[in-house]
What does this fold into?
Amino acid sequence: MKDHEIKSLHGNRRAPKPSLCRSIFTSQLFYLTLALLAFFAGYYTATSTSFSPSSSSSAAATINFPSRLAATTAAMTLPPEIDNFRVAPNCIDPIPTDLIRETILTRVYGGASPFDNFPPPHVANSLRDRKLKGWGSKGAVFRHLIEEVRPKIIIEVGTFLGASAVHMATLTRQLGLDDTLILCIDDFRGWPGFREQFQFINHINGDVMLLYQFMQNVVYSNVTDSVLPLPFSTGSTLSRLCQWGVTADLIEIDAGHEFNSAWSDINRAFRLLRPGGVMFGHDYFRMGDNRGVRRAVNLFAQIYGLRVQTDGEHWVIHTS
It folds into this structure.
């Protein structure tokens, strides 16, 4: 057979018909369908919960924590996707209330009050006599909760210039709670660019005078016996207080507004609450805050079967 005849035979040969399976698996429609199925499967598993709290939004708290051990046990039984965010327990038994001031002064300030010989000479000319600025710092929730709880120890997480701390100190005195101690946790560094809004707060070589202005406000308001600053990060301070056995009857959360910050503060502070204590905070109704404070508060309450109440701009969680 000649070469041109061979080529003619091959040229007229039909290609084999593709199988049905091959047609399906090489089809763009198949891969599009597969991608859509994967998306909806992921969406379903992400939005469905694998735990069912026993309380509804209209019911009172159904879980009471008579001790830190009970709270730790409850936390250890969380589902894996939530357990990854659990704050590891590392607390000792609570110390008596009347030893808390002494414990703080000894461990943080070497036994002396930070208000002794205040202000130091190098900042005296940089301070205002009194400059209180806050957000929701005089809301009705403060009086409501102090009247209800009658706290001996209050912890404020996020203090800034001390407007709400001074207000709470004033309220406790008005209600005859002269021995109430308010511990104010804040690193007193502000945030990048905050001096654009608060230009009256001076700085020396980049060191902002926020802590000193807070202390000046406390001194001017004559509440140094009621208020003590803890000038460190919220996470490290709350953990250390737990290790020292410090507990509180009332805790206010008003530091970072991002979800991770609020979630960490709420979970760490919860370990410091005494039985029957109350935790509350600001910024529950901020625009778009279903990704920030409100999301953290709601998720925490859902996990522990607690009820979130609101009072003005504040959220409130009772533990009993």
